[in-house]
User: Which sequence fits this backbone?
């Protein structure tokens, strides 16, 4: 007989089931996480969240729920985008199956500003970034190496078909390290180092809300800071700098400094009549 390890059975109707136990504090933590994941509504992930939440409601005593509801009224989650992947449910299910079975996917993908194109990818994982889902996958037509890995936004998938063709995931793949290399979701194997001067006025914002876990901050005598951070693409940095207006200045790389200078010139031309 095959060794299956431990088998856990959940649900009030299951004979000999293990009862689910949770404190009011644990329910609060779970419900907050559930609220943060509302953009996943309509996906298999959300169905799993809701199923487990229903099981908790069936299993836990009324006293625990009363205590939970009392404290939950003073905790609120706001600012999550009004987004749903319900229309992508079938595509995501196909992608999940292909990830588990290591099957090559044929997709119809529409990049911004381009017509839909048929591609083949080798999907490794799904990532959640700023309430959007991304598929971490290798471009099938490229040779082995880290340069094959791309981050494909689920919103841009028009179709996905699991082919009767299989791939072998790289044995040395470390997706955690791969995703930790950059401040955003752009793919890249060689992150660039960006140096940004932040004024005394805006410095506290960057300190309170770090751009990256491994960013470095050099405090200056006048209260300003020099921020050093890595990113795979300058588009992960430029919007953040522009959001701070004249309180932030990109010092390097020079190419990025040139790009933002051109962007500012173009923006100034749009508002020339207001000067």
Assistant:
């Amino acid at each position: 007989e095959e060794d299956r390890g431990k088998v856990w059975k959940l649900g009030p109707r299951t004979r000999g089931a293990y009862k689910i136990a949770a404190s009011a504090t644990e329910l609060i933590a779970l419900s907050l996480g559930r609220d943060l994941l509302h953009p996943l509504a309509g996906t298999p992930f959300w169905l799993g969240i809701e199923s487990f939440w229903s099981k908790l409601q069936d299993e836990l005593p009324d006293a625990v729920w009363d205590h939970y509801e009392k404290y939950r009224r003073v905790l609120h989650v706001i600012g999550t985008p009004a987004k749903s992947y319900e229309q992508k449910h079938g595509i995501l299910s196909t992608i999940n199956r292909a990830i588990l079975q290591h099957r090559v996917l044929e997709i119809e993908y529409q990049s911004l500003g381009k017509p839909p194109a048929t591609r083949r990818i080798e999907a490794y994982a799904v990532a959640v970034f700023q309430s959007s889902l991304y598929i971490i996958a290798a471009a099938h037509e490229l040779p082995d190496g880290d340069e094959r890995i791309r981050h494909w936004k689920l919103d841009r998938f028009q179709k996905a078909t699991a082919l009767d063709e299989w791939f072998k995931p790289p044995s040395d793949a470390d997706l955690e390290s791969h995703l930790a290399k950059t401040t955003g979701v752009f793919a890249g194997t060689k992150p660039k180092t960006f140096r940004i001067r932040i004024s005394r006025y805006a410095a506290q914002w960057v300190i309170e809300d770090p751009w990256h876990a491994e960013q470095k901050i050099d405090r200056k005598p006048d209260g300003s800071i020099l921020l050093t951070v890595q990113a795979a693409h300058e588009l992960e940095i430029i919007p953040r700098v522009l959001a701070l207006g004249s309180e932030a200045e990109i010092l390097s790389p020079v190419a990025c400094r040139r790009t933002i200078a051109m962007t500012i010139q173009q923006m100034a031309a749009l508002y020339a009549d207001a000067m």
About this structure: The radius of gyration is 24 Å. The chain has eight helices and nine strands. The chain has a mean pLDDT of 84.
